[in-house]
Write a structure and sequence with these properties.
Length: about 575
């Protein structure tokens, strides 16, 4: 970074992205940086410290940049606020050594190592040559990750037993995806060209051996060491992690109370909708169980993938020009089936910066071949259109007017998840969920997000269950009670519920951002409508809101209200 004293905040932010990609080629591949595709990051404590030092250096450069003429322009000010908040939150997590105990069923460094292969280009022999080098890097990356976990054990900083046990199970599946001795990396490499067949097979076998080695160490060394550890994190750790995921210092007790108020509101709506499907049903979930057996469904994995693709394509056709104004490259999104060994929840991967890789939604099948549609419609409005895809693809589309940082790695989880939940509600408001099956499924998904606020905060802080709760009033939350509550107020099968609770124990503070982020988006829209009066136009507001890049919840409402 030459002549850093002459840089403005957006330039500092983009220089940070360049330096980050050099240290973290997984991020580089998600951005579409070709030079990253053959490498994996250093996941050891040294690698973690290098990332932290980059953050410290960048914050010092930002101090200087904010004193430059022009730094007070709105585009510079927004970027500076985001960069400072994000790097400060990341450093707080690093300095608490959270990276030494990153274990669970999703979002760990090991998950990133595997997931990056699903977005690495494989269209040419040259692409596969890069894949070969990346496969050869898997053992070293996983060894660095294990070194970090071993240091965590030494310092008595470790994950809980439940996330650990689930991770061991996942590693076992990655090492033998079909029950016949074929590992995930070997299966992935089997699609490579004949000219590299021998080398790809050898590298893939070595990658699988590294997974087995990590699994055995986790099972034989790590798991016994954490057997008596708590699964929950307590108020101090939770506050630090929720700051990272939400971009604000939350009043956790107020957020917990809000989760309960939404629980009661949504439950009332669910009862009304359930009556249309199964009159006299004891609970909405009895009606949903009826839909599991007798409702509309799709047979076949490829068939459901195509059905989801058609759903997103129709949403784009219906919304573009009426409620959004979409560039041609934003209109493309792909439906994919998630690789075996994933967590149970569907997810989205954003397009590369140049859109050579489109945005993609991913459905984990969990071994199923029959798919009721009631819980897919609003979920794909969330993951695809007008949810994650429209927001994150639009950020990429307008990145040159913002900064690379605001459009990519500066993403605040609660902003993106809040928009996606807002998108579900928007489709209800616009009349896309009038079918009773689809609307009850939407409300069930809303209930899941309210329940996340309740149980994620409640069990990690060991809060009391309110006296007006229909579930164990007056008792204090435990993970066991949380799983029972979630299962009793969700249509999801038992394996999904178990995966969800393990997710909350794996990444505390992330799951609450859906509902709290939605609240911020709705409040920002309400204030903008009040400020604009008769001149308020929803399509104009949507496009302005989607073109401002990432913001934490500290800033989101104010910025949305001003549009």
């Amino acid at each position: 970074m030459s002549d850093t004293k002459s840089l403005l905040p957006r330039q500092v932010a983009d220089a940070y992205v360049d330096a980050l990609v050099a240290l973290d080629p997984v991020t580089g591949t998600f951005l579409g940086v070709r030079e990253s595709h053959s490498r994996l990051p250093d996941l050891s404590p040294r690698g973690q410290e290098a990332l932290a030092e980059l953050a410290r250096t960048t914050l010092a450069r930002l101090d200087e940049a904010e004193r430059r003429p022009g730094a007070d322009r709105d585009v510079e000010r927004r970027c500076a606020r985001l960069l400072r908040e994000r790097l400060t939150a990341e450093l707080a997590v690093h300095e608490a050594e959270e990276g030494l105990r990153s274990v669970g069923n999703m979002g760990t460094p090991a998950h990133h190592v595997r997931e990056v292969f699903t977005v690495t280009p494989t269209g040419t022999d040259e692409d596969w040559a890069a894949v070969l080098e990346r496969l050869r890097a898997v053992p070293g990356a996983l060894a660095g990750y294990r070194e970090s976990l071993a240091l965590g054990l030494e310092r008595k900083l470790h994950a809980g037993p439940r996330p650990t046990a689930t991770f061991v199970t996942q590693l076992t599946e990655w090492s033998d995806t079909d029950g016949k001795g074929l590992g995930w990396f070997e299966d992935f490499a089997s699609a490579g060209p004949a000219s590299l067949r021998t080398e790809l097979d050898e590298a893939a076998r070595a990658a699988t051996a590294a997974v087995v080695e990590l699994r055995d160490w986790m099972r034989d060394v790590y798991a016994p060491a954490v057997e008596a550890a708590p699964n929950t994190v307590g108020r101090d750790r939770y506050a630090r992690l929720s700051r990272y995921f939400n971009g604000t210092d939350l009043d956790l007790d107020e957020a917990y109370a809000y989760g309960w108020s939404e629980f009661h509101r949504i439950l009332g709506e669910m009862r009304q909708e359930a009556e249309k499907i199964l009159p006299g049903a004891a609970t909405p979930w009895v009606a949903l169980a009826h839909l599991d057996e007798h409702g509309t469904h799709i047979e076949g994995v490829d068939e459901v993938r195509q059905w989801l693709q058609d759903l997103m394509d129709r949403a784009i056709a219906d919304l573009d020009g009426t409620h959004f104004e979409l560039a041609e490259r934003v209109r493309k999104v792909e439906s994919r089936i998630a690789p075996p060994g994933s967590a149970a929840a569907p997810y989205y991967t954003q397009p590369s910066e140049d859109f050579s890789r489109p945005g993609r939604t991913w459905l984990p099948t969990m071994g199923q071949t029959r798919f009721p549609v009631y819980d897919l419609v609003s979920t794909w409005y969330h993951e695809g259109v007008p949810g994650h895809h429209l927001q994150l693809a639009q950020w990429a589309h307008v990145a040159q007017d913002l900064s690379r940082y605001q459009a990519t790695v500066g993403m605040v989880s609660a902003n993106a998840e809040g928009w996606a939940l807002y998108a579900e509600r928007l489709m209800d408001e616009l009349g896309f969920l009038t079918d009773p099956e689809h609307r009850l499924g939407y409300l069930d998904a809303q209930m899941m997000r309210a329940a996340r606020v309740i149980v994620d905060i409640g069990m990690h802080l060991e809060l009391e269950i309110p006296a007006d709760s229909p579930f164990h009033p007056g008792e204090r939350w435990t993970p066991e009670l949380a799983q029972e509550f979630f299962g009793a107020h969700s249509s999801r099968p038992a394996d999904f519920v178990e995966s969800e609770l393990t997710r909350y124990l794996t990444i505390p503070g992330q799951a609450i951002g859906y509902k709290l982020g939605e609240r911020a988006w709705l409040l920002g829209r309400e204030r903008a409508r009040r400020n604009r009066g008769a001149s308020f136009d929803l399509k104009t507001w949507h496009m302005a809101a989607l073109s401002q890049g990432s913001l934490g919840l500290d800033d989101l409402v104010d910025e949305l209200a001003a549009l």
